[in-house]
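Page 47, continued from p. 46.
Same chain as before, 213 aa.
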Amino acid sequence: MSDQSKRLFLGLFLIAAGTVFLFQQLFHLPFGSLFFGALFALGGLVFLSLLYKDREKWWAAIPGFTLIGLGLLIAFSALFPKLPGRIGGVIFLASIGVSFLVIYLLKPDRWWPIIPAGVLLTVAMVAALPQGSELGGATFFLGVGTTFGLLGLHPMGRQEKWPWIPAGICLGLGVLILILSGALIGTFAGWIWAALFIFAGIFLIIRAIHRKG
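Result:
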């Protein structure tokens, strides 16, 4: 980019910024926050355009989706100030998680993006729950356990088997916390979980008897 083009771009940017702040003063609306939110989102789209042109630049998905998430967070905070603060955290965490999910979809032979994608999306789900919810701990362990379970289904996991260890531990803890918390008492989901446990237990007993015979 030539010096003339840089000056032209900077000039247009300053005019746009000045216009936005002028509207903010005139109409008392959060144009300033929306402007910066759009600016972050635009920066994210620039990174995603690099990824679109060359899929080998998979790393661009991380700053791309992160900046878009940050832009959405700023915009939502400005437009809906009465919304619970956790909504912004959900948007931001989920956007980073999606970036790793996209990396995995672009490069399925790489197993490592599954872990940060699953963990971040799980934390986003926990953040979406009402403050002090009894389901928080169970949701976290079930989400992390499911993440490692998906890793175990990956070709790497089929060879090395180790992902099933944290998967089993986390899923077990998640189910235990879910039962002990009593959060599902009197709910339809509670009946479903009870039926699943009973059928799973019967299945394992029948299988064990047949093998013994």
